[in-house]
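1st attempt posting a full record on here, be nice pls
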Amino acid sequence: MKWLKWPLFPFAFIFWLITSIRNTIFNKKLIKPTSFSIPIINVGNITMGGTGKTPHTEYLIRLLQSKFKIAVLSKGYGRNTKEFMFVETKNKPFEVGDESLQIKNKFNDTIIAVDHNRVNGVLSILDEFPALDGIILDDAYQHRKIKPGLNILLSDYSQPFHKDYIFPLGYLRESKHNSCRADILIVSKCPENLTKNQAEILKKEISFKGDVFFSTIKYVEISHLFSQNNINIKTIKNLVLVTGIANPNPLLKFIKSFDINIKHLNFRDHYNYKEEDASEIIEIFDKFANDDKIILTTQKDAEKLKLFKSFKKYPLYCIDIEIDFIWDKNKFDKKILNYVIHNQNNC
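the predicted structure (as tokens):
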């Protein structure tokens, strides 16, 4: 820890104290979490963003949707409302949150809902769809009022939680020891060439008692926001990259592995773009390079940027990502499927 951060220690102690008292209240069952009679899978973290919760949630949807009727419930981070809502493709990001809308646009037939109160959210979904087979909670590890049947914790390979510090000294939402609430740990954003020996060393350092899996990011395709045109990244010469995500470094590293001239405009996570931002992006793009150029953004940012009519005359593309497991993919899939199969109507 850098010595410059030591003045933040009193604030970190207060943050740790508040979260520890809250967790103790739930651990001692002074407040009892609500359980439900259907499988509830939570995908979360104890780090402030950037671990890849959304693509892992999408992986679970792909795994389960052909065999079960499932729903996804999230807080809808970044929206200007708090009440329960079913997400529809016609919604705007400020109504339901950018990531929830992203998921709905990719999985039109899947039930996606948002609610700041997760218990109320589950009850509202089940009231409308009583025959549901399971619910995926997106980012609810700290939402202790609801008890998931299967708790999946994510940890970024480049910034593992066991080497981090409590906020504001670091990026931990709560003490690293609370990883014990998880049933499964996924080390996300791993390099594809990660060796078994490196993975075993990391497992020992983390000292997690449950199953540990290692996932990596796959960049699937680059698609135009206003047409059906897809392009191959190998054909791109120049691009203006626009990101409003917690950690753009893996994407930057991927793009830089090709012979591409890049101008990166980095906004804060979940940034709400304004007209002046759109104008600035266009102005920079017009002055950047001479030809063979595009504007590239993430799926999450695309939900907001495509609302600006000024971009319709420009080559605005987004890059699609998925996750895959380096090893033990079948073991992970089987664990998830068995949980959903064997916990129907079993409170």
